[in-house]
Amino acid sequence: MEAVEGMMSRMKLSAAEKKGIKVVAADGGRTGSAEPMAIGKVLVEKLVHGDGLATALGRIWCPIKGISCKDLGENRFLFTFHQAAGKRRALEDGPWMFGKDLVVMVDFDLSKSVDEWSSSMFRSGFVC
């Protein structure tokens, strides 16, 4: 155990790693051809399982084709909507609940890092 702790203490992040994680669209970053996406955060301290979240909210947002959900860590998720109207509904018709927990949604912006999305949620009046 001490050997692992020693290795961990010597690890340093590069300048690029310190900037945060950027999510690239599955189509290689081309705009206009990707399916609509949004970022969501579940405001709860316990960890949320993305598959359950996608199943529950996908039935509401995109009842015919559903959604995909990628876990970005810290209860933040990237939602891909397989119906164009699903994104509009997710962003405009909230607030949304998953169980007893609030789900905050913001539009996906390819140029922002995950931490910047959290900041934009905070500026919108939500606590992340």
Keywords:
alpha+beta; elongated; DUF4283 domain-containing protein; 5 strands; Alpha-Beta Plaits; 128 residues; 5-stranded antiparallel sheet; single chain
Secondary-structure-derived class: alpha+beta
Strand/helix succession: HHEHEEHEEH
Residues in helix, %: 25-40%
The best one-word shape is elongated
Count of distinct structural domains: 1
For the largest beta-sheet, the strand count, sense and barrel status come to: 5 strands, antiparallel
Number of strands: 5
Indicate the CATH topology. Alpha-Beta Plaits
CATH class descriptor = Alpha Beta
How large a portion of the residues is in β-strands, by DSSP E?
A: 15-25%
Task: Tell me the layout of helices and strands.
Blueprint: H1 2-10, H2 15-19, E1 37-42, H3 50-61, E2 67-73, E3 76-81, H4 84-92, E4 96-98, E5 101-107, H5 114-123
Antiparallel strand pairs: 1-3, 1-5, 2-3, 4-5
Provide a descriptive summary of the structure in words.
There is one protein chain. Helix content is 35%, strand content 23%. By secondary structure, the chain is of the alpha+beta class. The chain has a single domain (22-123), classed as RRM (RNA recognition motif) domain (Alpha-Beta Plaits), CATH 3.30.70. The radius of gyration is 16 Å and the shape is elongated. The N and C termini lie far apart (33 Å).
Q: Can I get a quick summary?
A:
The protein has 128 residues and is α+β, with helices and mostly antiparallel strands. It is 35% helix and 23% strand.
